[in-house]
Design goal:
By secondary structure, the protein is α/β, with parallel strands linked by helices. It contains ten helices and six strands; from the N terminus they run H-H-H-E-H-H-E-H-H-E-H-E-H-E-H-E. It binds zinc ion. The site of zinc ion (ZN) has 8 residues, from helix 3.
Length: 252
Amino acid sequence: MARLGARAKALVRAGGEVLWPSRSLVSGARNIGEGALSPAEFARLTFISQPVCDTCGQPQEVDLGEETVCAACLAKPPKWGAARSALVYDEASRRIVLDLKRSGRRDGLAIMSNWMLEAARPLLADADMVMPVPLHYRRLASRGFNQSGWLAAGLARRAGLPLRVDILKRVKATPSQGGLSPRARKRNVSGAFALRKGKARAVEGRRVLLVDDVLTTGATLEACIRPLLKAGAAGVDIVTLARVVRARDTSI
Ligand SMILES: [Zn+2]
């Protein structure tokens, strides 16, 4: 009985760790009691909620009803169908994203996948598969993991959709997009992605849900979308953990 009790306690601890990691995801402070996010830290995160631009997911100041498209998307429609993100990319969410990318911290993945599932909900019914933005094999070898792959796996499992990491590959090891202008970002990732040999049929006529950690200008995501559409994909939608939110925007 005592043994069973100890085992049950261990299980509760293990389960609790999944929901509430013992080190804060935001501040990095250890032993904050509740776990990943203290109520104050949770409050610092900005979750994106309606109304958003139907195409890019940018929050809109005024709710003009369903299928509102922002001025930027009207002026230059992106290659994706719709993009949704869970969080505004700001100081609070930056820590989470960088921890995931630089130190491979996995204990918040369950929570992040749940946030992304909620953000992606309007897109799930049409999706045939979930796919992460791939890393170049050399970067994958040196880093040891692809954080977008982890997020995509968590989302696919929760959404009950197949995860495909065998279709798209990164053929150019491009420098980081950080600090580059939108135009330079586009040039930097142009032609960086391609389909693996013999995989065109896997996407032909199918709708792909493409996953990345952060949506900034969308240049990397569009570079991924190009070969997918060329191979006959019916469409590509985007889900990211966080997105950069433009300061001012006009709804039309
Ligand atoms: Zn938009």
